[in-house]
Amino acid sequence: LALQLILAKLDLLTINSTKQNFCANNVYLQEQGFCQDQTIIKQLQELNEKMSGNQKQQEEKIKYLELDKVEKEEEIKILKENLEENKNVYENKILKCEQPEIKDLAEDLEEIKILDKCNFTFREASHEENENTKELLSKDEQLQLEIQKKEMKILSLEMEVETQKQQEEKIKYLDWDKLEEEEEIKILKENLEALNELFKIRENSEELKEENEKILKELEENKLKIEKYEEDKKLELINLAKLKNENEGIFKVKNKLLEENKIKIMKTEEENKELNKKLKNSENQIYQLRQEIGEIYLEKSELEDELHNALTVAKYETEKNEELLEQIKEFNSEKTNISMENIFLLAEVRNKDVEIRAFKLQVKTLEGTINSLNTKIDELTTKLDQLNKENDKKIVFI
Predict the structure, then answer these.
(1) pLDDT of residue 150
(2) Vertex 204, ends 203 and 210: CA angle to 5°?
(3) Structural domain for 151, as ranges
(4) Coiled-coil segments, which residues (predicted)?
(5) What is the pTM assigned to this prediction?
(6) What's the confidence (pLDDT) of residue 363?
(7) Which long-range contacts (CB under 8 A, 24 or more apart) does 382-389 make?
(8) How many domains does the chain have?
(9) Would residue 294 be called left, alpha or beta, if left means φ above 0 and alpha means ψ between -120 and 50 degrees?
(10) pLDDT tens column, 74-110
(11) Average pLDDT estimate for 255-268
């Protein structure tokens, strides 16, 4: 364009020089110069039209690029909305997967495990309770055996006391026998005295000698018997005194033992009462535990039925969930594809933004050149007007 303007200026200068050199042919030259001026003006107008056409084309390109940008932004918005819808669908499906029924199934499965553990623990507890009951029974049996032993000891002590009482009665009876024997001895002594008197009376009689000898022999024998009997009685009395002392000590010891045993018996009876209470409580607890175990077994059977039904439903829902998971995987693959497409579109949009910026810079540069050319055209038009005025003046002068 600058070269064309320079050529146009050169043409104008040549025209002016031809006008000055050929004054005779001014009319022809004027017409020719006018025609050339018109051609130059036409050329300048065509250049302006071309520049304006190029500017319009560039503006149209910019508008087209902006429209493409808007369309792609709308497509990106639509894709984002689709992504959000897919996300919502995916979240809804996940929520469906996390419905309370499925949660209840999971909780039921956990409850089954807990019930199995509880059954195992109940079995262990029942086994432990049986062992505890056995231990309690063994303890009760041991206590009963101890009580029986203590009762036997008490009976033995009572028997010993009775034997002591019998011995005391025997001692009393021996005392009575002793008194009776003493009375008999007194009677025998009196009889001896009487016999001695009779012997004295019958000493003088020979007939009674033999009888007296016999009586004397009998008396001597009786004396010996009496002496032996007295010695035996003395020994018996000594033994009885010893037995009394021993029996008194034994009686005191046995009384102490009886008192201690009575205290122990009272304690054992109290312990037996407490143990009986504990046994009753344990029996009640065992009965309650058995009832609870029966209720638990019933609940377990009911839960097993419910779980069987729930497992059938869970299997059906797991199949549905597997289908949903496959759909979710497909959605995820689509999502990844869409995200890749979005990335490519964003890259294209960025490239187009860069191109638009470059086009805008070019347009700005072209606008600057156009403005400079317009100023030059204005200057040239003013110069043409001046030249035309000068030519008109020259024509008028001619």
Answers:
(1) 60
(2) 55
(3) 130-318
(4) 41-93, 140-390
(5) 0.23
(6) 73
(7) 383/12, 384/12, 384/37, 384/40, 384/41, 387/12, 387/16, 388/37
(8) 1
(9) alpha
(10) 766 776 676 667 666 655 655 554 444 444 444 544 5
(11) 77
Number of H-type helices and E-type strands within the chain: 4, 0
pLDDT at 358: 79
Q: Does a structural domain hold residue 266?
A: yes
The conformation of residue 99, written as its DSSP 8-state character, comes to -
Place of tokens 């639509």: 78
CA nearest to 342, candidates 88, 90, 85, 82: 82
Which one-letter DSSP state was computed for residue 200? H
**Does residue 207 form part of some domain?**
yes
Q: What span, in angstroms and rounded, lies between the C-alpha atoms of 54 and 47?
A: 10
Write 162-170 long-range contacts (CB < 8 A, 24+): 164/247, 164/250, 164/251, 164/254, 167/243, 167/247, 168/247
Please give the average per-residue pLDDT across 364-384, as a whole number.
Answer: 76
The verdict on residue 335 lying in a domain is: no
Q: Please, are residues 21 and 56 in contact by the beta-carbon 8 Å criterion?
A: no
User: pLDDT (tens digit, 9 = 90+) per residue, 316-351?
Assistant: 877 877 887 788 788 778 778 777 877 787 777 777
